[in-house]
Amino acid sequence: MNKLIIRFFSFFNKLQRRYAYNLYMKKKKKELQEKYAQLPVKRHLTDEQKKEIVDYYRRLTGKTISTLDHEYLYSRTGVYSKDYIPLGFFMSELVGRLNRMDCYNSYSDKNLDDILLPNVKHPHYYLKNINGYYYYEGKPVSMEEAVEASKDLGEVIIKPSLDYKGTGVRVIHIKDGITDLDGKSLTDVFQQYKKDFLLQEVVHQHAAIKALNPTSVNTLRMATYRSGMEVLLVYSVIRIGRSGQVIDNQSAGGISTKINPDGTLGKYAFGKAGDDMIEKTDTGIVLDGYQIPYFDKAVEKVKELHYSLPLFDLVGWDIAIDEAGEPVLIEWNGRPGPSQTACGTGYGELTERIFSEVWGRKNTVQYHI
After folding, report:
1. What is the pLDDT of residues 78-130, one digit of tens each?
2. Which CATH number fits domain 205-334: 3.20.20.70, 3.30.470.20, 3.40.50.2300, 3.20.20.140?
3. How far from 49 is each of 30, 39, 55, 350, CA to CA, in Å?
4. Which helix (H) or strand (E) holds 280?
5. DSSP helix/strand/coil, 171
6. Which of 249, 255, 251 lies closest to 280 in space, CA to CA?
7. What residue spans define the domains of the chain?
8. pLDDT in tens, 210-235
């Protein structure tokens, strides 16, 4: 009887997971269809191209995939490739084999970055709120003490520590306990953010990068892949804010373009769906061939850092370059998307190698209804 009960619950859990998986994939498909509808140019795949894509993924994974992502990316970039990795497929099937996603939530708190990764420069943390507990300059304090200690910090970054895509990130000015967020008191702002957030210094970036957009910290998004004792750079892009914006994320209105191996920028940047083939920043700088200073130094640093995260074979790094040319870790991401509008198809020449090395692993993505 006990074995029957165990088998029943095991079967029920599989059905529940499959149901949650199907809901997730339907959501991703709907989001992609809405983005595709916004594109000014729509390119359609031929039957031969669709067959090539389906055959390619069957060979790599044994699974049949939708070609909608390929058609969307082909329409945006004008470049067809069978190597594009569908985002829904990446999030549901691939990242859970690359990384221990069952452990992800325990590592993803930005308040822990300086503890997990001490061998890199971080923006200075003034205040951390972790699970509702306050720490000022590393010391536990009450909320009242946190407000008092922070009341004259001046210009700082406030951001949630568990969200991503720039949600809730603001530059604020604090004087006498009052902020420039509609004149709200610091107490009100802390109560608005509730828990799991931080106050951090504003990074003063290198002049050549600040010139791309002075109101945002324009970060390098660099993805690395660990294969045994080797760490490889998969892709690099730079994310640039638009005029007056604080956030550089493409999903929040910024633009991004690839960084070539020599540290120069690609010809075009991409923004939200329909905002493509941008050749100049809002400050008038031509992207094509623009040199990112100290790029090699940033590459060396993220490769070194990757060894400190053994549960994650694919890591996305958001790196700023400060005024002295030092890489500054803004944050890291354990499920970085392929960034294919900006940097090209799939994982380039590493695509088949990555699939061959990780596809046989257990998928650690967890679904919840």
Report:
1. 999 999 999 999 999 999 999 999 999 889 999 999 999 999 999 999 999 99
2. 3.30.470.20
3. 23, 21, 10, 21
4. none
5. strand
6. 255
7. 2-98, 125-200, 205-334
8. 999 999 999 999 999 999 999 999 99
